[in-house]
Amino acid sequence: MSHDTLSELLSKQFNTSILNCTTDFGMRTYTVALPELYAVLKFLKDDAACNFFFLTDLTGYQSADEQHLYVVYHLHNLQTNQRIRVKSQMPIQKPECHTVTDIWPSANWMERETYDFFGIQFKGHPRLKRILNVDEMDIFPLRKEFPLEDQTRDDKNDKMFGR
Amino acid sequence: MTTKPQSAPKNSQIVQPPPGMEGPGFFATRVDKAIGLARANSLWPLPFATSCCGIEFMATMASHYDLARFGMERLSFSPRQADLLMVMGTIAKKMGPTLRQVYEQMAEPRWVLSVGACASSGGIFDTYSVLQGIDRIIPVDVYVPGCPPRPEQIIDGILKIQELAKNESSRRRYSDDYKHLLNGYGIE
Description:
The complex is a heterodimer. Chain A contains three helices and seven strands. Chain A has one domain: Beta Polymerase, domain 2. Chain A is α/β, with parallel strands linked by helices. The N and C termini of chain A lie far apart (about 60 Å). By secondary structure, chain B is of the alpha/beta class. Chain B has a domain of about 130 residues: Rossmann fold (3-Layer(aba) Sandwich), CATH 3.40.50.12280. Helices cover about 35% and strands about 15% of the residues of chain B. In chain B, the strands form two sheets. A four-stranded parallel β-sheet of chain B has the order 3-4-5-6. Chain B has a two-stranded antiparallel sheet with strand order 1-2. The longest helix of chain B is centred in the last third of the chain and has 17 residues. Chain B is globular. Chain B starts with 19 loop residues before the first strand and ends with a helix. The chains are: A alpha/beta, B alpha/beta. The interface between A and B is medium-sized, with 14 and 12 residues.
């Protein structure tokens, strides 16, 4: 299926929920309204014409104005070798979206990782706990409001560098 | 009569006896000096190698630099038989409890050698996921600087550990100071 056909199919199925459709870095990207995100992803997996049965990647990022978090899905149809990207925006005060572990079981650890680093709550995930960082960590380290550097070091004050 | 240093072959050094009294058929010295001599020259190191400093350690251990010259014939991969914990490489915060458990499993007396910038201070990895120096969780005896240090530097650190072992009071491990030190790290 060509990208144009897919775009038409999606806009026919979901109408205004497909907010935007661009081609970034040679890959078609669909921005989907958060309430319809789960339905769109399920359609992309289950529809015989789409058949995106492989979830390549699931991750997140924070917008430059720091007010929104995004969740990003990379889908791959291995039979036609077609790849697309689906993303959705959520407010940073309430970063919640539906889990896709029932669509792609491989999303389990990727959602845990995204929760670990961005604090996105995946509703319905079977075991949403930190996966890479220590359990005691009380920050979501890839969010811009948390500093990258370890805050317990006391030898990096300006006095040490003659400033 | 005190002992005279034995004449050693040129360009080589052998272990000298501790100061003591010598006569026909006997040699008297202090127990802690004799024990220190034995300990220092038969340390069993436990290599805890996690990254590039571990590669330097492998060179140190292998035939060219040869740790066996210092009585380290056998590396102990079980903490229960090891005397010296050599921590070489970046320790992530998630690995901290493992390192601590390894240290706790070692029997007294035990020494810790922190090899390289990462183990000593976190090094270039000043980030949320890396332990900023292993001395935040276990006491360290000798630090070896470098990123990574050359085998000669690691050997220098080992010789300093040997000096510590040689001159340590036999009562140190039972002293209140030592208990206080361990309690400072929440051990025992």
